Each structure stands twice: as C-alpha cells, then as structure tokens.
TrEMBL record:
This is Endothelial protein C receptor. It comes from the Eukaryota. One of its GO terms (cellular component) is extracellular space. The chain crosses the membrane at residues 99-119. GO terms for molecular function: signaling receptor activity. It comes from Pelecanus crispus (Dalmatian pelican). Keywords: Glycoprotein, Membrane, Receptor, Transmembrane, Transmembrane helix.
C-alpha cells in the first residue's frame, strides 16, 4: 500500500510574525515541501529519486497555481489566524468552528488541485 499525505498550514506567533508550510510525505517519509517565500517546490526525498524529481518538475510547470498556493499560505491562512486571534481576544468563549471549517475547505481545495495535477500528468509513480 502506497500513501501520499499532504500537510499545510500556518502558525501565528505572539510577536505578530507568521510561518507557513506545505509538506508532502510518501509512505511516511518526507517527499516534497513548498518553499513559501520564493514559491518553489523542493525535493525532500533521501537521495536522488526519479519520482521526487518528476513530481517537483511537474509541479513547477504550473506557476499560477504555485503563486495562488503562496498567496493562500502567506496571506489567507495568516489573515484567518489574525481574525480568529482578534475575535477570541474579544470573546474567548466563541466556537472555533469557522476557523476549522475555513482551513478544512482550503485544504480540500489544495488537495483537489494536487490530485488533479497528478492525474493530468499521467497518474503513475
């Protein structure tokens, strides 16, 4: 059984700085990561693997999608956390449901995009 997992998100620190990430693992091993500051995909697979090289090359063929991902991680994700932080500062008993729903919907949208790219480029590892 093969397993390709994606993890994305952002962290907002108390000093106002933020860190965004998108990481892909293949069978539990780091495979690819998205370098948010310069909007590039980087291989994380140990050694020189043809599949990791292929995946990195294919993902870099979609500059508009890559920029959209960068914007989502740098701006949208961070804005959601800032809004939630401001909201919980005013009313700490409020539900986290809107934040969780927004992050889940964003994750599904990006996962759908990744699966679509994978299938449109041949779909075989």
């Amino acid at each position: 059984t093969q397993s390709l997992c994606c993890r994305l998100g952002c962290c907002l620190f108390p000093n106002g700085t933020a860190y965004s990430f998108y990481e892909v693992t293949l069978n539990g091993t780091a495979f690819l990561s998205f370098h948010v500051p310069n909007a590039t995909w980087e291989r994380r697979w140990p050694g020189r693997d043809a599949v990791a090289t292929f995946a990195e090359r294919e993902l870099m063929k979609y500059p508009m999608t890559t920029r959209d991902l960068q914007h989502f991680l740098n701006t949208t994700c961070v804005d959601i956390l800032r809004a939630q932080s401001a909201w919980t500062g005013k009313q700490s008993s409020r539900s986290h449901a809107p934040l969780v729903l927004g992050l889940i919907l964003g994750s599904f949208a990006l996962l759908g995009m990744a699966v679509g790219i994978f299938l449109c480029t041949g779909g075989s590892c």
